[in-house]
Structure formats: C-alpha cells, structure tokens
Task: inverse folding
C-alpha cells in the first residue's frame, strides 16, 4: 500500500464532516505533544477501520468459496489482505483528492476574507 499523509487519513476516516474540517484546520497549529497524541489516535482509528474491513472481506470471500463448494486454500488470507489493501488504497486516493479540494476551498475563503477586510468602507 502507498504511503498517505495524516490529512488524507483524517479525511478517509468515518468522522462527521464538520469534525474532519475542524481537525484538519487545527492540526497544523497544534503543539508537538498534542499533534503526536492526535496522530496516534488517528492511526489507531485507521487500523480499527482496516481491521473491520479485513473481517468484512474475510466473511465475503469465505461465503464466495462456500458458494462454490470449495475450501479456502493457503492463499486465502493473502487474497483477503490484497482485496482489503486495494479497497483502502482506492478510498484513500479518493480522500486525498477530497483533501486537496478542501484545502483549495479554505484558501479561497481566506483570500476572499482578506480582500473584504482590505476594502475601505466609504465615509459619509
């Protein structure tokens, strides 16, 4: 699986959108201790999601094997991991693209705020 940055992981996780946006916005300005704790928690959440996906794919592929009247072979678990890694990587890639759009949107909002703040209101 490719390496993904923490912002992509945050965006991938099944958190409410408002929470993700708030966390993404605050993450860069966190102190080192808070950032390290937050990063650890994010990775723990990621691996919980990954584990759930492994279990779902295990059950799904096992049902497919049973349906065919076969038994899992020695490569079965490797197939489960491969399928899960592909699904997670695809989801992370989509999340990465979404993070880019979120950051672009935030940048545009900041520019608009700066433009509006720099406008001098006319005096009567």
Result:
């Amino acid at each position: 699986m490719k390496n993904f940055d923490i912002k992509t992981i945050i965006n991938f996780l099944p958190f409410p959108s408002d929470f993700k946006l708030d966390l993404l916005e605050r993450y860069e300005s966190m102190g080192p201790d808070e950032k390290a704790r937050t990063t650890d928690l994010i990775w723990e959440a990621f691996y919980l999601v990954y584990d759930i996906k492994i279990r779902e794919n295990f059950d799904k592929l096992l049902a497919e094997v049973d349906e065919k009247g076969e038994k899992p072979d020695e490569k079965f678990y490797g197939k489960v991991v491969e399928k899960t890694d592909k699904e997670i990587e695809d989801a992370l890639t989509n999340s990465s693209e979404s993070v880019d759009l979120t950051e672009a949107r935030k940048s545009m909002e900041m520019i608009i705020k700066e433009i509006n703040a720099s406008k001098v209101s006319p005096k009567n």
In short: Residues 76-118 form the longest helix (43 residues). The two ends are 63 Å apart (CA to CA).
